[in-house]
Amino acid sequence: MEKQKIIIGVTGGIAAYKIPELVRIFIKAGHDVRVAMTAHATRFIAPLTLETLSKNRVITDMFEENPDPLAHISWGQESDLVIIAPATANFIAKAAHGIADDFLSTMVVATTAPMLICPAMNSKMYANPITQENIKKLNNKGYLIMKPGEGELACNAEGPGRLPDPIDIAAQAFQMLQTKDLKGLKIMVTAGPTIEPIDPVRYITNRSSGKMGYAIAHKAAMRGADVTLISGPTNLKPPSGITLISINTAEEMRNAVFAHHTDMDMIIKAAAVADYRPALSADQKIKKREEDISIKLVKNPDILSELGSKKSKPGQILVGFAAETENILTNAKEKLVRKNLDMIVVNDVKAKDAGFDVDTNRVTFIFRDGTIHELPLLTKDEVADELLDRVREIRGKDNELHC
Ligand code: CTP
Q1: pLDDT of residue 399
Q2: Please, are residues 278 and 198 in contact by the beta-carbon 8 Å criterion?
């Protein structure tokens, strides 16, 4: 992500002690951070702490000597994101009513940047209908309001009102700052294993955790795409802002894919589809009467090949995955051609840090023109971003060709 200008407004609550950590996260990520504090906030934490960490002057008073006398206007207009954390009930009330009686509240009235408000207060103050009404007003204005955490509060009360952890505030901020370069695109992602029943209590499956597909769906949604995730059973929390279709078997995945594929701009098939299923799935539990039994397996539909053979929308991009254990590149190239793909993502599933159920992956991208791009060991989120960058490039090239 490019360097972004982030304003953090700190108001007078005990949770202000968490803000140095928030500033550090943004500085470490290479962003420009400016802090404004209300007079009451300076009673909880010294401006010098935030000035040292942000490497920028902290503004606490509208009328203090300042090289930029119009900072109360320019800050909020030149920044990429304004965060108010902690946001007290008083500050929320003022912002909801357009009151501009100090530097921070004036800057908020004048800002044109996206706003992230992180309320933190006693749970009774938070539950007060007036506070809730004010929060709703800010929400209606397009501000994003983070839900406070629950638990023991500094005032000994229990309930909602804790400032979310700095890491969670930062994650929300990064999501808001992310460039929406996939806006307007419909992307289907398949993820996880399929399970093929033998009888009502037993099934055949594989070791896929779904992490790679979920990371792609999450990143694509963050980058503005309209994402449909078709997932086999996993233990993962679905990413927010996507449409999730849950399936069990390969046959169900096929039906879900073909119910939605026609208007997709990109289809990314990260799922580990079971190649075979039991020819018969018993209605009742199979009892252990025999010494040995055989289960006849029949081939499942190859969903990706079927998609490749009837690309439904001009310029539709089809990405496959290849889980290989030997002759990795040769097998993957053959799959790319046989399944008529634009790109294939290859991984050696025997590698310790790059196989099933880990958070990292070491992959190689192979493209239709034979280009090979080998990536280092990355987190699955990073692989997802790299993959989405590449499909965007393919789409760009295709669009040029169509012009
Ligand atoms: N795939 C699919 N339907 C299947 C099997 C695989 O859509 N029945 C897709 C996977 O989602 C993946 C790609 O095909 O994107 C390659 O899957 P992989 O298991 O590596 O290859 P297979 O085609 O199954 O070939 P093999 O098992 O012989 O390596």
Answers
A1: 66
A2: yes
Query: Which one-letter DSSP state was computed for residue 327?
Result: S
Q: Is 343 in the pocket of ligand 1 (CB under 6 A)?
A: no
Kindly give the distance from the C-alpha atom of residue 398 to the centroid of ligand 1, in angstroms, as a whole number. Answer: 25
Q: Which of 320, 180, 323, 349 is nearest to 257 (CA)?
A: 320
Entry pTM: 0.72
Q: Which of 1, 130, 155, 171 is catalytic?
A: 155
Q: What region, left, alpha or beta, does residue 240 occupy, with left being phi > 0 and alpha being psi -120 to 50 degrees?
A: beta
**Cβ count near 119 (within 10 Å):** 30
341 lines ligand 1 (CB under 6 A): no
CA 342 distance to own-chain centroid: 24
CA of 319 to the centre of ligand 1 (A): 12
Which amino acid, one-letter code, is at 39?
A: A
Q: Distance of CA 284 to CAs 203, 251, 340, 364, Å? A: 13, 21, 41, 45
Distance, CA 283 to ligand 1 centroid (Å)? 28
**pLDDT tens readout for residues 177-196:** 887 889 999 999 999 999 99
Pick the residue whose CA is nearest to atom 28 on ligand 1: 275
Q: Which residues, in sequence order, are CB contacts of 275 under 8 Å at separation 6+?
A: 299, 300, 302
- Rounded to the nearest whole angstrom, what is the distance from the C-alpha of residue 333 to the centroid of ligand 1? 13
In whole angstroms, give the CA distance from residue 145 to residue 138: 8
| Residue 304 CB–ligand 1 contact under 6 Å | yes
Render pLDDT for 105-155 as a digit per residue (tens, 0 to 9). 999 999 989 999 999 999 999 999 999 999 999 988 889 999 999 887 777
In whole angstroms, what is the distance from residue 217 CA to residue 381 CA?
10
Which of 204, 252, 297, 302 should be mutated for ligand 1, with most atoms under 8 A from CB? Answer: 302
**Alpha-carbon torsion 230, 231, 232, 233, what sign?**
negative
Mutate which of 297, 309, 335 for ligand 1 pocket (most atoms within 8 A of beta carbon):
335
Summarised one tens digit per residue, pLDDT across range 264-280 is 999 999 999 999 999 99
Segment among 97-106, 177-186, 366-375 with least mean pLDDT:
177-186
Length of the chain: 403
Name all domains of the chain by residue range, CATH numbers in brackets: 5-177 (3.40.50.1950), 186-402 (3.40.50.10300)
